[in-house]
Fold this sequence. Notes:
Layout: E1 44-48, E2 51-55, E3 62-65, E4 76-77, H1 80-90, H2 109-120, E5 124-128, H3 135-145, E6 154-158, H4 164-175, E7 176-177, E8 181-182, H5 185-192, E9 198-202, H6 208-217, E10 222-227, E11 240-244, H7 250-261, H8 267-280, H9 284-310, H10 318-325, H11 349-353, H12 356-361, H13 365-376, E12 380-381, H14 387-391, H15 399-405, E13 409-412, E14 415-418, H16 422-428, H17 435-450, H18 457-462, H19 464-474, H20 488-502, H21 506-523, H22 526-542, H23 546-563, H24 566-583, H25 586-593, H26 644-674, E15 810-813, E16 840-843
Parallel strand pairs: 1-8, 5-10, 5-11, 6-9, 9-10
Antiparallel strand pairs: 1-2, 2-3, 4-7, 12-14, 13-14, 15-16
Amino acid sequence: MDPTSRGPEEYGHDAEDRAPRPRPSRDPLTPDFGQHAASPARMVRLVAGEHLVTVNPVDGSEIELCPPTERPERPARRTPASRAEADRAARPPAPAGPDRPAPPLLGRQDEREQLVRLLARGRSVRLVGPAGSGRTRMLDLVAEDCADLAPDGVVRLNGFRRTAADLLHDLFHAVYDAAEYRPDPDELLALVRDVGAVVVVDDLDVGGDELDDFLDATPECAFLFGATPDTPAPTADSAVEDVVLPGLDRAGGADLIERAVGRALTEEEANWAGDLWFESEGLPLRFVQAGALLRQRDQLRAGVEAVDEYGVFEDARPLAASAEAGDTGPGLTGLSDDAGVEEIPLPSLGEAAAPAPLLASRLSASARATLRFAVALGGEVPHQAHLPALVGDTHADAALGELAACGLVSPVGARYRLAAGVLTQLEAAGYAEDAAGTAHTAARHYAWWAGHPSVTPERVCAEADAVLAALAVTAPAATGPAEDETCVPVELARTAAPAFAAGLDWSAWEEALRSGAEAARLSGAVADQAYFHHELGVLALCEGQLDRARAELESSIGLRGALADKRGTVAGRRALALVADRSGDVPGVASLLAADASDTRPEQPVTPPRGIPAALPAPVPPTLVTHRQSGAAPTPAAHRRGGLRGLAKRNLVAAGAGALLVAVLGTVVTLGATSDNDAHDPSDRVGVNPSATTGLDDGAPGTDAPGDDPGTGDTGIATSRPTDPGPDGTLGTSDDPTPTGTTAPTPGPSSSSVPHDGHGTSPSPSPSTSRSPSGSPSPSTSPSGGGSSSPTTTPPSETSSPSASTSGSPDTSTSASGTTTGAPAAGTAGSPGTVSPGTSTSSSADTVI
Length: 849
């Protein structure tokens, strides 16, 4: 059940589609074995500027560009009834117990009228006074006087630890009815520019240029700021007038004490009040606390008189309770059973100047426990609905009324804090002992409460300061959780941060995420640490801070990748892709969405994807070979280490190996062509099916060189089909020498690359010459540029011979003395072709060297 709601709701009853908890059996001896259904995670979708954010407490929030159908319409203004409800919500709750009249305004009527006159003329005013000077009471009275001055009425805002941007968003939501919508800065300025209201901001923390920008954004509003002398002042051009709130005079101080006590002061008490006025310089808070001291003294005196007269109920004496608790104050020292009224002296001037320990010693045990929680939380007083669970007393909610009546707490926005100077006084009195354990107890309670399905995000945001204070104390001391337990600060941040996000309190959201990330790092909770970094990245993306968003999301993706958290990694990559899209990093998107690749992998040739053939290369210089994909964008692998640079290096190696292979083949063929018909000629023993030999150790694929078989003496190059040299003596076969009187052409390896024309022919032949070591001319051979086929050797001949078939698109190169006549489309098995003497054919899938 929501501690702040007095209704009879139970866990799981807030959703209509969830089955109610089974009722217990009528038999009181039979326990209720009904189990609660698993509560689903609280998912909230909200629009933040141009983004649609889905708050996901489990895997991390999802963010995307908001579709046009999800864009909210221009928000409507609140009705007067809705404004009145928002005004009540902005005020602190009334303490439990009997109603107490509000303290009167004494000696401040002139300042009150001056403020109303300035606001009625549309001027902005800053009411300056120290803490405890009665600024909040003055602002409340002036707001009541200005209720009908502006069309949008009076708007109350809390400036405690709030930036100018936070105040702008608070003003927008106070005037407009826009649930689950946070406009971007431009739209926010356009909306608040039309607001016409008297805006009362208490505990202002901003000044200077930041305050000027806030005033320029709201030209139709009149502001009444409450600030301390330590608050930064506005600039000289801001046109904000300062009204100083003076202290009370001596008569006013005595009158305030009499109202607190409920009777007239004695002469001794009046003199004591005069000394206090001189020491406090008329600060009203000191007189409220002094009146509480006198009221407690009167209660003690009444208790002592009753015991002396009747002699009964001695165990009910407040002194006995204080002695048992060990918190007997200095004002009660020396009090005995038969003591009279005269032995309860007035507090000393020092005790009146720092009355918190003495006042606290005379309060109930629940009130003192509440003070310990407030000290542990840095001055933040938990809501009175949380006190029974924190203190362990069902009536502990009445402790807030005791503290407020003594002047130990003061209202700040919709909550209470320790009054000025009280925190220091209580710490000196020993209330800070075991502050870490007390804060840990509060953090464990808030972790349960913030994750309860019946608690709305608005309620968590209202208690944000106490929750963040518990996180600030427990997060730096976080350690690894014990067995079957969780780390309390991490759990608190995990439950509170999504509620802050859904409640649009993004300053609290960021602070909770940073405290949670620190606690997760110290406790070793890697999964939680990844979650917090992801949320920080989403928050930075919503605020337009792309560099910070990229850093946070990359950290989260790295941590989740180590944990093999696929769902979290996908969510992080989607958000990171949106960051890259917003920053214009399009190549970063392609590499982001691709699989992770290690930069330490060995260099491998880049091949086209399956099913997409590689297109023929464009004309390139002889020493550069490129490999392109037809109609396809470069793959992410092309941008990795060893991409184009590694490909160019391998092409250069292949080109050099091909040139060496041409020279070797030319020498071998020349020797065979110039030999005679000797029976012992090694060329006669060339088989019809030459074997493929191992290529040169050049590291390039598909570059094979001819070799010698020691067993058979066969030498040749493997082709796609065997060739028969024909019977001996047939002109044009490989076993015949060059005819007498015929000058053999001297082809050789081409010195330049011959580009393709798209039909397997060369538009312009390149002449080349090559000679063997013996001086005999030799035919030219052309190696394969990138395929798996081997080059085919064609001896000089005056007649045509069948062309060797190779895989891929062949190239036809001609020497200076040879020409290509009527060559059909080579590369088809069995297709004839006419090759003139001195020509060579080769096949290449990609390149020609």
